[in-house]
Amino acid sequence: MHTICFVLLFASLVGGIYLTMTTALRLARGESVAVAVLERAQMGFAAIAVLVSLVLLYALAVRDFSFAYVRDYTDTFLPLFYALSAFWAGQDGSFLFWYLAVALMGVGVVYSAGYQGLSPTGKTLFWVFYFLVELFFLYALTGPSNPFLRLDPAPRQGNGLNPLLQNPGMVFHPPLLFLGYAAYTVPACLAVAGVLAGDRSWLAAMRHWNLLAWCFLSAGIVLGAWWAYMELGWGGYWAWDPVENASLIPWFVGTAFLHTAVAGRSGAMTRTNIFLAWLALLLCFFATFVVRSGMIESLHAFGGSRMGMPLLFFLFFGLAWTIYLTWYTPPGTATDDTIWNRTGMLFVAVWLLVGLAVIVFLGVNWPLLSGLWSATTQGLNADFYNRACLPLGALLMVLMAVCPWMAHRVGVADRLGLGSVGAVGISAAVGMYTAGYRDPLALLGAVGGIMTVVCVLLLFLRRPHWLRSSALLGAYGVHLGMGLMAVGVAFSAAYKSEVEVELARGGETQLGAYRFVYEALVHDHAGPIERHTALVRVWKDGQELGVVTPEKRLYPNFRQSFAEVSVIPSLGREVYASLLGFDETETASFKFSLQPLVNWIWIGATLACLASLLAMRRMRQA
């Protein structure tokens, strides 16, 4: 099967090159092209992608260690659920999954109403550029990132899956990211097809794909943050790690593109839309470059990858093409010169998002950039990102609360609504300051989030007919979710309290109004995983809240121990506990934290993702 899978992928590569070149030549000569042939070819690519993916999944399920990839990421102790998720745990499998998603989405495009509305030339151009993206993946899968390498003789045991990846968050986090990356291929290719063919309908055709990509990418990023919070045991959810940041950059640009596409429906911001469509896709590949190149150190990065240079060349030529296409595109209709209307505020918000993307991009690449003038380089720490990004993020939240009340031409359309939101913001700021919450960035972020939440509620209260529009419900549902997230981030980041302490059995410690009593340490050696679980009873103001059970685990094939945190969930202050270590006398070291409003981040993110799906309405309209 190893050889058959490789041959099928190689045949797709050769066939794709031939089809792309002949189609491009026919277009250049002004000859007609049978679009149906291109569509059937895409279905063939997708069928082969599905077939070889099923072969790899089966090999993972039965632990066929004759596959080098299976040997590298599974062992006989691994539960089936995690063995199957090893599909995307390594570089080779994740590229195959990404290609599978791109191929299947290409089939979805064939049956979408938006694509059917394109001219024959537009459809042909779409497939030329879509095939080029797929050819990059096929090159990788048949060359530097082949998941079907054979081991002969096959070993009896595999290396196992990194225990940090044996978590539900990591089961869903990577595939959602890759689905988001894959979905951004469709708007980018529709953009170039629409511009070169003179089709004005490409923005409408890509709207639902843009929303789908944003939804997948948002869910993937937030699930990654939740995984870091629940698995790594350091008490936080975002460390501004280069790989975390790399996935955030296309999210900023994709969010900006969602909003410029709204203005683009009237013919405005044409060049901006083209630029952002392709930039979002290229930044998805940049995020992968950060992980695969080995040039930037990160907890998540793959060392020794052979995909660094191919990705770099792809990014270089892709960026050159994006700049050329943007320059070639005729400018759209001029926008108003004032920012004191809804379009102007939208324009400011878009470039704030792009500015955030630029800041994080420079921060991620700072170790490389600083090497141009210094022999010793180091990355920028979280303090830089917090100081540079949080004020802009808070300003974005305020704009989200103000923009809906502005008129389409000049001035304010609803003074009562805007005044009410402003009064709520001022009252919230005064109340939080009086209560002792005086961190400037946290105060601004929380006020912006509260204003956004109140804005959405007031909008539907004052305009109840909006409740009958799934598009408006979805759009402002996203805003509502983002507002809740902003409040959660502001409080959890600035007002988290924690203590690290060493306790003998029966010992206790105090953190604010909370008392932690260490009662026992339970050792479980049954099965392949060795578990050591601490039982800690938590009290607040004399009332028992519950028991936290943080663990240390030892996995087969791994000498290092891994932490499993335990929480007592709350919509207010969540109790968070991790076991740092213990000795033979069962004296244990703990980290206890109080995380204010952290669950509003997960609630807001879930609401935003679900609302974006509601805004799509029926996918068949795309």
- Overall, the morphology is globular
- Separation of the first and last Cα atoms: 38 Å
Oligomer: single chain
Detail the poorly predicted runs: 618-622
| Helix run count | 19
List key phrases describing it.
19 helices, 4-stranded antiparallel beta sheet, globular, alpha+beta, 622 residues, 61% helix, disordered C terminus
Describe it.
Helices cover 61% and strands 11% of the residues. The protein is an alpha+beta fold. Strands 2, 3, 4, 5, 6 and 7 form a 6-stranded antiparallel β-sheet that branches. The protein has a 4-stranded antiparallel β-sheet with strand order 1-10-9-8, with helices on one face. Strand 2 (508-511) and strand 3 (514-524) form a beta hairpin. Mean pLDDT is 90; it is low at 618-622.
